[in-house]
Amino acid sequence: MTHQIHVIGGGLAGSEAAWQLAEAGISVRLSEMRGVEATPAHQTDSLAELVCSNSFRSDDPHNAVGLIHAEMRALGSLIMRTADAHRVPAGSALAVDRDGYAEAVTDAIARHPNIELVRERVDALPEGPAIVATGPLTAEALAGSIGAATGADALAFFDAIAPIVHHHSIDMDVAWMASRWDKPDSSGATTKDYINCPMTKEQYHAFHQALIDGEKGEFKDWEKNTPYFDGCMPIEVMAERGVETLRYGPMKPVGLDNPRTGRWPYAVVQLRQDNALGTLWNIVGFQTKLKHAEQVRIFRTIPGLEKAEFARLGGLHRNTFIQSPKLLDPELRLKSRPNIRFAGQITGCEGYVESAAIGLLAGRFAAAELLGKAMTPPPPMTALGALLGHITGGADAETYQPMNINFGLFPPLEDAKGGRKRKADRKAMYSERASEALKEWIAA
What is the extent of the structural domain holding 267? Predict the structure, then answer.
């Protein structure tokens, strides 16, 4: 059939985007490479295959990921409808029968009268309207075409992820704000841009040994031949090079006077603001292959981070994603080629649900444009709006790394009475505010 838009990639994002377009009456060509060419990660040629876990994580609407579940259901998500139909016991989490779920998504797509499912590899960006949802293992030729359209330095092939901490969980009675030597910015203003966590000699040596002894994750088969480079050396690999290596690298204390002692600490862990709201802070230089439980245990020994709440834990793996905050407009269009939208993990979102959510939005934006209608982005108070805002401008483009949905991406809560809320109360307030905002957006 003649198509009005080309969706490239039949993962969660591409399947959801195609469904949203088709349900709006748009004819879609959905191209999926599996069926004619395998990938290193997938086991089947089913659409929306779950490569790793079978869990969509928490389904509690007072959790950020549970909230995005609810919002997607309200917008007719194929991925959520199918996941609900193939749910298996998992407590408060949403886990699915992996094969039954993927087969049902494939069947729904194949049967839709407005979708032509084609098993083919696409090697270049189309000239007409398209959504690229090829995921973190985008084929080499298409990745080259994307690089040509965006600039080679805007496409990452190695994912060096440092942990991110919620600002409210950092103990500022221990940590302090400063930049090294308090150097002024280009305007001459004094800067105190980093949160600094000091360590004594004894604390540093204990921390160094914990990094050496900590349990590490293994590279997947397709990652094993991807070499480290200096810009993303895991913190524990640096530690193995010598006890003093970290003190001359990311934990260098020089130029950082602790205002409580008037002296440089023996070592310092620095955190850098990671989003425009200032709610999320990145632990500088702490990309790691430590297992997640080990990261929490070890990094909470850092003074000032004893009660740290992590929005994202560290990692290092093969990936393909674009610098979305610099390249995409608020409707997920490539600024240099607005006929092309991007969706899913290639935009720098992390996780099954997040990928499908961005696919849902890309499909709806594209459908509105093709039908000559206007669609405003969802409000930033919603989970969908918060994730979209982070991808399309809320994050720092130069340090941009994949991210799961979390309340640190939302505008801060207004507390007229002052004081800090309990964690459970904050979550409930975020969710209630988001629910009302989504209702108003849908009604409008």
Answer: 164-313
- In 371-408, which ranges are continuous DSSP H helix? 383-389
182: left (phi over 0), alpha (psi -120 to 50) or beta: left
Kindly report which listed range (54-58, 174-178, 186-190) carries the lowest average pLDDT score. 186-190
Q: How many structural domains comprise the chain?
A: 2
Q: How far is CA 51 from the centre of its chain?
A: 17
Q: Assign residue 441 a region (left: φ > 0; alpha: ψ between -120 and 50; beta: otherwise).
A: alpha
**pLDDT tens readout for residues 353-371:** 999 999 999 999 999 999 9
Residues 423 and 407 in one domain: yes
Same domain, 286 and 393: no
Integer Cα distance of 153 and 114 in angstroms:
37
Say what the pTM is: 0.71
Neighbour-count burial for 392-413, b at 16+ CB within 10 Å, e otherwise: bebbbeeebbbbbbbbbbbeee
Tell me the per-residue pLDDT of 140-170, one tens digit each, with 9 for 90 and over: 888 889 888 887 666 665 555 788 899 999 9
Question: Which token pair is 196?
Answer: 């600094």
Query: 145 and 277: one domain?
Result: no
8 A C-beta contact, residue 68 and residue 383: yes
Q: What is the pLDDT of residue 243?
A: 94
